[in-house]
Amino acid sequence: MLKQVLLFIFLGVNFISFSKVDFVRVVFNKNGDQEATIGWHQVSGDSATVYWGNKDLPATEFETFPNRGFVAASNTYKNLENRFVRLVELEPNTAYYFAIKDEDGFSERYWFKTTPNVNTERLSLIAGGDSRSRRPTRQQAFRMVGKLMPHAVLFDGDYTDIDNAQKWLWWFEDYKLTYQEFDNRIIPFINARGNHERSNDCLINFFDCPAKNNVYNVTLGGDLINVICLNTEIRFGGAQKRFLEETLIEHQNFFWQIPLYHRACRPHVNWKMKMKGVKQIYNKWIELFEKYGVKLAIECDSHITKTTWPIRKSKENGHEDGFVRDDENGIIYSGEGCWGAPLRVPDRIRSWTRDYGSINSFKWFFVDTTGIELRTVAYMNAETVEGLTEENRFDMPKGIELWTPENGDMVQISK
Ligand SMILES: [Fe+2]
Fold first, then answer.
1. Which of 132, 284, 327, 373 has CA 20 to 30 A from 139's CA?
2. Cα 65 to averaged position of ligand 1 atoms, centre (Å)
3. CA 129 / ligand 1 centre spacing (Å)
């Protein structure tokens, strides 16, 4: 009997032989309508290939996936063997299924979806950052991503606290919660660098970031959105400012241009006002944001929750910290990073601060050609929230807890 059991186990193990990959991720690095990068950690072995196509197939039929994607970039970084396959010329608004094959066999089957390439489709996006510690908390945030099924996540830096191998391993472990319980549907990330990433190499080596200085842009929804990923840890002027202006000009016809950067221009935690970003963003970037019609900027770093009224750079009478409220021409600044990092108490509040608080949360916003609806999701009850589907992704799911400050749970930004 024992022999038979052992033989059965032996045969079983041989029959089900899986590829040795982990931490599978999908990143939008240029144009979410047509391109995506698939990344993973190669646990052992190598020569991996991505089999992919736009039909969902059972595990036994992976070989019949029509396309093969070969590794375009690879590195060993912080003990992870990162491999990337870059998919281009994809169909917009299309589900792509894939499995990674190495010398040991196939991985599980994963999938993701490209964004539509027309501005007539509304997009759902999540923005946040500062996931650097408190794992049980940030795990809830990752889980909530899967529940809300946005088209993409704008991740605004400070992934880990001390940027070492163990912390990144845990980060990727937690990141898997965005898809593990959701049919392996991976929500693509768009990544910006924070001050806890000790160099620009993190984004390049973990997410195949296309820019050495981590300054780049990603378009979504045809001419609906241009996300501008900036880097508050390098020189604010020079090449970065030039790129900022170039991309703002190039996408002037877009409905929305949304800068994503880690350090806040006007932090709502007082001691953070001494940070270099405060002066630099104000002096180097804000005028450009205003000149080219930015309406919403995403910030992080202070571990508090805030959204401003629309504000404009000004030293006129009544300004506070160099800004005045301007409902017509102002920009709304929203943030500031509560994806697991220890919460702080906002203690620098201005007349143009719309609402502020200290709550584990991220931003969730819907974008179309007429406006943006922005909410703050208190994600700690992720497990009890009813998951959304593609059909109802713009509804408020049962059980969701929205941050509801004095001025309401929804910020409306008009074109
Ligand atoms: Fe930070």
1. 373
2. 42
3. 9
Give the residue range(s) of CATH 3.60.21.10 domains in the chain.
123-414
pTM of the model: 0.95
> Cα(302) to centroid of ligand 1, in Å?
7
Residue pLDDT, tens place only, 368-414 = 999 999 999 999 999 999 999 999 999 999 999 999 999 999 999 99
For tokens 């584990």, name the residue.
360
CA of 301 to the centre of ligand 1 (A): 4
Q: How many angstroms separate the CA atoms of 400 and 378, rounded?
A: 8
Topology of domain 123-414 in CATH is Purple Acid Phosphatase; chain A, domain 2 (3.60.21)
CA of 184 to the centre of ligand 1 (A): 30
* DSSP state at residue 227: E
Distance CA 217, CA 259 (A): 9
Distance 58 CA to ligand 1 centre (A): 43
- Of 343, 374, 364, 367, the closest CA to residue 137 belongs to 343
User: 384 — phi, psi (to 5°)?
Assistant: -95, 0
- Structural fold of domain 22-113: Immunoglobulin-like (2.60.40)
End-to-end CA distance of the chain: 73
Ligand 1 center to 271 CA (angstroms):
13
The pLDDT assigned to 415 comes to 86
CA 194–ligand 1 middle distance (angstroms): 6
